[in-house]
Design brief:
Layout (H helix, E strand, L loop, with lengths): L4 H10 L4 E5 L3 H7 L5 E7 L9 E3 L24 H6 L3 H5 L2 E3 L4 H5 E2 L3 H13 L6 E7 L8 E9 L7 E14 L5 H12 L4 E2 L2 E11 L2 E10 L12 E9 L12 H21 L19 H13 L14 H9 L6 H9 L5 H17 L11 H10 L12 H24 L7 H4 L22 H9 L6 H4 L12 H27 L6 H9 L6 H4 L4 E8 L2 H8 L5 E9 L3 E10 L22 E12 L1
Parallel strand pairs: 2-6
Antiparallel strand pairs: 1-2, 2-5, 3-4, 6-7, 7-8, 8-16, 9-14, 10-11, 10-14, 11-12, 12-13, 14-15, 15-16
Length: about 625
């Protein structure tokens, strides 16, 4: 646990000529240490910041990225029509091998210090006899010395007032080598030379090896090996961790996916939500031409005729029988299935309306049919809209007059129910997972991030009541169904709708992850566990999906089939840890090798190797950590 706030302030006061940062470590330090505790980081600021090049076209796959959980309200497509969005050519950007950049713009803005100056800073701190703080201090070095030092570390532990303990670390760049030319015996020799004869070598060696199954999927194999005669051959008891980064690229992922239709349905729901918000805020845009009609929008008379057929004509539609098959094929089956539910058919008809007035007139026509005509197809799905129609059919309710955002609210409720039903069918009919939306829609009371949904300034609602209200927002109880006055025309809760859209977006991203896993890994036994892990996370907001470059899925697995597949591939990165000790100190060496540089290339022009075109070449680094016992 890092506690260096006071030390950081001391550094700023004593070494004003240098730049310091007290924050989570840069990615390259985290890669070497596998520790995300805050560190003090010494560097030199560049005069100008680099351009934001987080999205670059290279031949290798993305590394893991960390994303913040934001709450962006509104639809990212608010300013363009559904037709216009459909005509944008996203396929080129999506299909290119575009990947997440290795470093953040902030990391590329750091400039290294001269190695001697970096050592001087750390030694001066030791000389101050400071007896506060616990954690690590890192300095970024230029690598121009004989050892090609790129990082220096000083870890301090001042837990005791009478004693200070220091651990020193140094990271060297050892050159670019062919992966086939690196052996474990060679690394052991390097470590033993540094340890000397006075230390005893620990035969237990930790090895981590990464390989690419495809540009989006990385597998990490971890195991321990014993003895100096060991090799990099993967052992059968190796632990397997799969990391999959789904390229989002501002929503372009959906345009090359078999699940594109369902993402379009979610877009439509978000646009309807925006219409409701505009009307409730007295903005004229809420009454303007609908942006979700698309090419299929029709005139009011056509919609009325379609509605009349749905309610008053006997259905001869056979329910769809689903065939157990791949996830991709099940998506196609659900997309093309025959609609038998009355409210789902009405929803499809009402979305053909091109503006607010037509939608209100069409719903009013439904109410009049329910009161004055012989309705043969009675709604049964329990939404408020269905309950209103049923009450009028049974002469328990007079024809209501819709005002404000009420037409869109009824439409939104039906659309959410229809999309929930489609997703539930895809997952359950294929035997992948049973989606329980009632649980997914519950506010996570114990999660501190729940406050991001509470944007109103009104009185706070008791969370137990809030959870109960959430579960029944669109599902009236039996008692309510018997009371005409309990069927409210307007029951819009912005926070609850936001939770639903966020969860539906999360479910869709999960579906995209499963499609990618099915196409590359194809181990159905892991799908259920993947669903559990992914849905247990707090969802990102619907709007943020468009602002992210990738969506990360990581999980451990013990499938021997995947282990065999990964063992046949050339590694793209490797991390080897070994140690030696005596009575006084311990030396631990981390050998890190990667097909890409660990640190930004722009900081170390002297390391540039233009002749390297072979993807089986490794950039090699050695991290020595000396700890006094």
């Amino acid at each position: 646990m890092s506690d260096l706030a006071n030390v950081y302030q001391l550094f700023r006061n004593k070494f004003e000529a240098n730049d310091f940062q007290y924050y989570c470590p840069p990615s390259y330090i985290h890669t070497l240490t596998e520790n995300n505790d805050k560190v003090i980081f010494a560097f030199r600021k560049k005069q100008t910041l680099p351009l934001d090049t987080n999205w670059t076209s290279v031949k290798n796959s993305p590394k893991s990225n960390t994303s913040n959980n934001l709450d962006l309200t509104g639809s990212p497509l608010k300013d363009e029509s559904f037709d216009e969005f459909q005509t944008i050519d996203h396929s080129k950007d999506y299909n290119e091998p575009a990947v997440w950049n290795l470093w953040t713009p902030e990391e590329e803005s750091y400039a290294p210090l001269a190695t001697e100056k970096a050592r001087s800073i750390l030694q001066n701190f030791i000389n101050l006899d400071c007896r506060i703080g616990r954690g690590s201090i890192w300095t970024l070095c230029s690598g121009t010395d004989a050892d090609r030092t790129v990082l220096l570390q000083l870890s301090i532990d001042s837990a005791s007032k009478n004693q200070r303990q220091f651990t020193r670390g140094i990271v060297r760049f050892s050159g670019v080598q062919a992966s086939s030319g690196i052996s474990l015996a060679q690394l052991i020799d390097i470590h033993r030379q540094r340890a000397g004869d006075g230390m005893k070598f620990n035969p237990k060696i930790q090895i981590q090896q990464w390989c690419k199954l495809c540009p989006q999927i990385t597998v990490r194999l971890s195991w321990h090996t014993m003895g100096e005669g060991s090799t990099f051959i993967v052992e059968r008891n190796a632990r397997v961790r799969l990391s999959q980064e789904l390229p989002i690229n501002n929503g372009a992922f959906s345009h090359s996916s078999v699940a594109e239709y369902f993402w379009q349905q979610l877009q439509r729901l978000a646009l309807i939500r925006d219409k409701i918000m505009d009307i409730r805020a007295n903005r004229e845009s809420g009454y303007a031409r609908s942006e979700f009609g698309g090419e299929d929008e029709m005139g009011l008379e056509y919609v009325k005729q379609k509605v009349n057929n749905i309610l008053s004509s006997f259905l001869a539609v056979e329910p769809t029988t689903y065939t157990l098959s791949s996830i991709a094929d099940m998506i196609q089956q659900v997309q093309k299935h025959n609609l038998t539910d009355v409210m789902e058919r009405l929803y499809d008809a009402l979305t053909l309306c091109s503006n607010y007035d037509d939608l209100r007139a069409a719903i009013d026509y439904i109410f009049h049919l329910s009161t004055h005509s012989n309705v043969v197809n009675v709604p049964t799905n329990g939404t408020r809209f269905a309950q209103l129609i049923l009450a009028m059919i049974q002469d328990r309710l007079a024809i209501p007059s819709l005002t404000g955002s009420e037409p869109y609210e009824l439409l939104l409720e039906c659309g959410i129910n229809k999309l929930m039903s489609d997703y539930r069918t895809i997952f359950s009919e294929n035997g992948v997972y049973e989606l329980e939306f009632e649980k997914l829609f519950q506010p996570q009371v114990t999660n501190p991030r729940k406050s991001r949904y509470a944007t109103g300034s009104g009185p706070q609602i008791d969370m137990h009541h809030k959870a109960k209200q959430s579960a029944h927002m669109f599902q009236p109880t039996v008692e309510e169904r018997g009371r005409e006055k309990s069927i409210l025309l307007s029951n819009f809760d912005e926070d609850e709708v936001k939770i639903r859209l966020n969860r539906l977006a999360q479910v869709h991203l999960l579906l995209e992850h499963l499609l990618l896993l099915e196409g590359v890994v194809n181990v159905p036994s892991i799908y259920g566990r993947v669903c559990e892990l992914y849905l247990s996370q707090q969802p990102y907001s619907y709007g943020e999906v468009y602002n992210r470059k990738t969506d990360l899925l990581e999980f451990d697995m013990d499938e021997f089939m995947l282990l065999r597949k990964a063992d046949q591939l050339e590694p793209c990165a490797r991390r080897v840890v070994m140690s030696s000790t005596n009575l006084l100190q311990k030396l631990e060496t981390v050998f890190y090798q990667n097909a890409k540089p660990l640190l930004p290339e722009s900081l170390y022009p002297q390391f540039e190797c233009k002749e390297i075109d072979n993807k089986h070449m490794f950039w090699c680094y050695e991290y020595d950590l000396i700890e006094r016992l």
